[in-house]
Write a structure and sequence with these properties.
Elements lengths: L4 E3 L2 E3 L3 E3 L8 H10 L4 E2 L3 E2 H16 L22 H14 L4 E7 L5 H11 L3 E6 L10 H16 L6 E5 L6 H10 L4 E4 L7 E3 L4 E3 L11 H10 L6 E4 L6 H10 L3 E4 L1 H6 L4 H14 L5 H4 L11 H14 L12 H4 L1
Parallel strand pairs: 3-13, 4-6, 5-6, 6-7, 7-8, 8-9, 9-12, 12-13
Antiparallel strand pairs: 1-2, 10-11
Helix pairs in contact: 1-3, 4-5, 7-8, 8-10
Length: 343
């Protein structure tokens, strides 16, 4: 059974790639993921604010006390919110590359051009095999138009791409007016891969403290439907590799993403819930399904259920919507439970 696949020009032993998560903060955990069957690992994200903080702190220590008396020798920095500073991140990449043989994909998280380009070059020098740009941008300015938002993504990508030679992926938001056009523009600009999709933070309100508080929800299997749909639409229509993320819990989920056209399937929530040792379980489920259905390789099934050969994808989508609505039935009949229809 040949599970090998190609992602951003990297030859991988399987499509199973742990995405950015707390697991990658520890080198021993990265090694554990490799031993469990991970074909590559996406590092935890370094935030743009961390780069800016480092710059601000340096400026502070170079200037603070310059007009004070000469005996003022000690200045204490403010406590850092972040667990890993930029230099530690680079050192973490270097040590990880020494420890494992699978590709290490660095991750930068930001929303502007600040600091991205110079640091991307340092990431390459540290030995990262590729770079994923996690552009986390929530437009709250009501005067911004769609074109301006899209240009922000394009400008960030072009600036980074111009400074490095390693492959660069872009983790996309699902909220563009036309995701297909955005994918096409990034592809034309030279994106080596598109990761579908970024999951945005949804804050909650604590009614006891009357404060806004973080409320991270892990993805559920139902979340895979959105990337599944758009990977099927984009496969064969752009040159960039496609990475599926969100809701992949089983080998069957991974098979579906590959048949839609994904090059790799990223794992996060399932590993946080079931542990790193769940990777071989997912791989075993994939192998079993492929054997039962007489597939000899991942490449044989990739894109087989995409819309590449559909003459009018828009009509196809419309028809599938109509079919879905027609299958919707109320669950009020005594002998039929709602689960009969919804699984």
């Amino acid at each position: 059974m040949d599970l090998t696949t190609t992602y951003m020009g990297l030859e991988l032993k399987s499509p199973l790639v742990p995405s950015a998560s707390p697991f990658s903060e520890d080198i021993d955990r990265i090694k554990e993921m490799e031993d469990a069957g991970a074909s590559a690992v996406v590092m935890h994200s370094l935030f743009e604010e961390q780069l800016q903080l480092e710059h601000d702190e340096l400026h502070h220590h170079l200037t603070q006390g310059s007009e004070s008396y000469a005996e003022a020798l000690t200045y204490f920095p403010k406590p850092l919110f972040f667990r890993v500073d930029p230099e530690e991140y680079l050192d973490h990449i270097r040590k990880s590359k020494e420890k494992v043989s699978i590709p290490i994909i660095a991750s930068l998280n930001g929303s502007s051009l600040s600091g991205w380009t110079s640091y991307a070059s340092k990431i390459q020098q540290a030995g990262a095999d590729a770079l994923e740009l996690n552009i986390y941008y929530v437009p709250t300015d009501m005067d911004l138009v769609a074109q301006q938002i899209e240009e922000t993504y394009i400008d960030i990508f072009k600036a980074v791409k111009a400074t490095v030679t390693i492959p660069v992926a872009v983790k996309l938001s699902p909220f563009f007016t036309n995701i297909g056009n955005m994918a096409k523009r990034l592809d034309a600009a030279g994106a080596n891969a598109l990761v579908l999709f970024n999951r945005f933070y949804q804050p909650d309100i604590n009614l006891k403290t009357l404060e806004v508080e973080p409320h991270i929800l892990l993805s559920t299997p139902e979340a895979m439907r959105l990337p599944l749909r758009w990977i099927a639409i984009l496969h064969g229509r752009i040159h960039a590799s496609l990475a599926a993320t969100s809701g992949i819990y089983t080998g069957v989920d991974a098979i579906k993403m590959l048949m839609a056209g994904a090059n790799i399937t990223m794992l996060c929530s399932v590993l946080l819930q079931h542990g790193i040792n769940h990777i071989p379980t997912i791989e075993g489920q994939m192998r079993k399904w492929m054997e039962e259905h007489e597939y000899e390789s991942v490449k044989q099934l990739q894109g087989s259920m995409s819309q590449q050969h559909c003459s009018n994808p828009s009509v196809f989508e419309r028809v599938q919507y109509m079919r879905a609505i027609q299958t919707l039935k109320p669950g009020w009949r005594k002998n039929i439970e709602p689960s009969h229809y919804f699984g």
